[in-house]
Design a protein that fits this description.
Layout lengths: L7 E6 L2 H10 L3 E6 L4 E6 L7 E7 L9 E5 L2 H5 L1 H6 L5 E2 L10 E3 L4 E7 L5 E7 L10 E3 H7 L1
Parallel strand pairs: 1-4, 5-9
Antiparallel strand pairs: 2-3, 3-4, 6-8, 7-8, 7-10, 8-9
């Protein structure tokens, strides 16, 4: 089924209330909270369209496993990520041996990215697809280096 899209993904937390505050601070809209099941669901993007969803499940500490997912944004939005996260006291993470002073580019896609973590240490990413042709031989490099290559 090649033409499918990802509708929802899930992450685990050891403290649901803290996780809910964190994801709300990123601008996600809380769609549903089930106290008895210890899960919160958030709509991504336009909540009216209900096109994508994130589920956050509380588990016991010994059941917790870190995960990773990315939020797709425009390049313009990506450039504002450092200020956006800094205003929420959220630190960017270095990635692939490169510091977080600017986005990193995965040249095989190509896509520019910033990485950070939620309060549980789940790896999160803001990702902007780039219009240029892939150059997998370049590996991962800073966006300024990518842009110099034209």
């Amino acid at each position: 089924m090649k033409s499918t899209e990802l509708y929802e993904t899930h992450v685990k937390t050891v403290d649901l209330e803290t996780a809910v505050r964190f994801y709300k601070s990123l601008g996600l809209e809380l769609a549903y909270f089930l106290e008895d099941r210890r899960v919160a669901f958030f709509f991504l993007g336009d909540a009216e369209k209900k096109q994508q969803m994130l589920g956050v499940w509380e588990v016991k500490e010994h059941e917790f496993v870190r995960s990773h997912f990315a939020f797709k944004v425009t390049l313009e939005q990506l450039r504002s990520v450092p200020e956006f996260l800094q205003a929420k006291s959220i630190s960017l993470s270095s990635s692939f041996g490169l510091d977080a002073s600017e986005p990193v580019v995965h040249a095989w896609m190509p896509a520019a990215c910033y990485y950070f973590s939620d309060p549980d240490g789940n790896s999160l990413e803001y990702l902007a697809l780039l219009d240029q042709k892939p150059k997998p031989e370049l590996g991962v490099l800073h966006l300024s280096e990518w842009e110099k290559l034209g």
